[in-house]
Amino acid sequence: MANAHPNHAEAARNCEMFLQNFMDPESDDKAKYMQQLQEIANRRSKVLAISLDDVEAFFLEVQPQQPGFVAEIERNTRMYQKLMAEAADRLMPPPDVNAANVKKDVYDILSEHRKIMDGQMRANEARETGQGRGGAAPGTVRGGCPDILLRRFDMYFLPRTKMPALPMRSVRATHLGHLVRVRGIVTHVTDVKPLVSVVAYTDPETGYEVYQEVTGRTFRPLDNDTKERAKVNRKMQPVMETRGSKFVKFQEARLQELAEEVPEGATPRTLSVHLMGEVTRSMKPGDDVTITGIFLPEQYTGFRAMRAGLLMSTYLEAHTVVQSKRQYGSAFELSEAEVAAIEELGESGDVYGRLARSIAPEIFGMEDVKKALLLMMVGGQTRVFPDGLKLRGDVHVCLMGDPGVAKSQLLKYVSRVMPRAVYTTGKGSSGVGLTAAVLRNQVTKELVLEGGALVLADKGVCCIDEFDKMEEGDRTAIHEVMEQQTVSIAKAGITTTLNTRTTILAAANPAYGRYDRRRSPSENINLPAALLSRFDLLWLLLDESSKEQDTRLANHIVSLHVLGRAPVAEAGAEEDPATAPVPLRLLRAYIGQARQYEPDVPEQLTEYIASFYAELRQMEKAALGAAATYTTPRTLLSILRLSQALARLRFSNLVEQGDVDEALRLMRQTKASLENSGPGGGAGDGAYEDAVSLVYRLIREYSSRTGELEVPYAKIQELTQRHNVSRENIEECVTEYARIALWTVERDQLGQPVLQLQINDSAFA
Description:
The model is unreliable at 132-143, 225-232, 677-688 and 759-765 (pLDDT under 50). This protein has 26 helices and 26 strands. Helices cover 37% and strands 20% of the residues. It is α+β, with helices and mostly antiparallel strands. The chain has a 5-stranded mixed β-barrel. A 5-stranded parallel sheet has the order 16-19-22-15-23. Its main location: nucleus.
């Protein structure tokens, strides 16, 4: 068992011995940490990172009788951090570069000046008083600059690889002072502020400097230097000198418990994290991170201390921050194993289809929908023109359909695949919760902007379930985000624009809960045209009854429960490894590699794409307003984005005609799902109203809108004129609904029918 009260002198010797003698096996057995100290002395580095794996290996070899030294560091980390830094100060070598190339900073000048002044002041004081200077005030340093003032590095401990990440609820009082590792979601990060670590004072009478080391968040400034100085009526207060003081970068973050670690019926807990020095700016709101640091108590100050009594708050002083999901971007790199796996996947053929089938393999069918989600995660190329015009590259997708068709499960899976993803629901989200809110910072007490779900998902995906349940005012906040990819804020004296380069994946139910075949698609969808046109792909997923399809779905679900995983092959067939779904990590790595490419559309495809777009517009015009979808210039940009995403999946910087053909096919499939023709999950035949039902609906809506119970034939012709309804359809409607007594038919002087609507008919009430 390790000593509960370690010998500080022996611990300091062990720290010094480790730094001086540990040899790095990966660099020809050179002194690993002496090399780090040399880089610090040459002003090329500011970090001394001590790996606890190295400490454990060193003392197992040098002192096998004391294998618990690394455990002592983990139990009393703050003390050993100080001892290790002091040992590094003693072992710090001189710069091995030309002295002229080492630029002096303010602390070098202060140190040299202090040595000269110290010698002069001691000699003068000895002559005048016959004795030395009195003792320093508590917390002050005399006889030279304090070590921490001249220390030009931050010392961090890197955890052992076998150290587990504790659930946030398992970090208790027994871990105070220990090195712990926790994982969570970053919900808030403050700006980087200067935090004083050494305060410099100047005696206005003698010009002598006094230094006060600050170890907490608060300190009491020095008044008179010593009691002896007060006796001789030297009552002038020391003057604080910010130029000679030392400040470190400080940032505070809030870490929230992971959803899978929250017990039933409980709310997620949060933990305050303090980042200092070079660890600052290592995470952003929305990141899934694993943080290793020292779990420490913090005493309340001010009025909070009066109310808190003996209670104290806790925080985690971060030493390392590791992203649990690698962020896509310019810094994205693959390991050798991932490169080999991607090459093997490329050689297997049909990468596009296999990756699409790997998205939520437990969900039966919907291959085209999964292909659309794959292209959404890959995305197109964002273009910024010299004049500032920006064309987004993100692909927005909306899944509209009946309850129980696995829309929410698809959203959940996408949020797990993407490194930066936020999942929210329409009913539980307000406009402020999606964009930004003005809150008061608990540290500085100033008003700051707190990013909402769309800001947290910047350069990621925001999955919004129950999109149709959102209030209209809240849904309007998404319009600017989807096209301009910014959020403009003007509230509480703060006027700014936030980046929301976010892909929107929305899931919604039809207006009446389930898709009503007797109504048009525009009535069922019940979303404004301004919002629908911003979605690149709009899929309609309906729960239709088909004996063959229902049997296959039931077999799939039963097999899923029996096997505990998605069945790869049909019943009775052998599984083919070349077509099996790829693991989640490989899927994420492949998408990350594909996003590094920036494909361009060649000039020879311009006419091909333009002709398809013109054809869509002519078809919509020929439908005389009865088309189920909107074809706008944004549709053309959607085709280009989908084509670029397909080129990225091929690891190519050039779009080919095959990419355009597949993009056009997906575009046709989405329109087919709405127009109920062909494959793609449409509502089937008969979803449109026939002409007779259309005439009846128009008459009913006119009567409900105006309150008129008498509708002449001329008005019926006026109502149906733009719907291309024939005279025979009108007469058939009049006769058919008169037969069931929904109205009575009379004749005017010209012999034209006049409908007398029934007052007691609920359809017209």
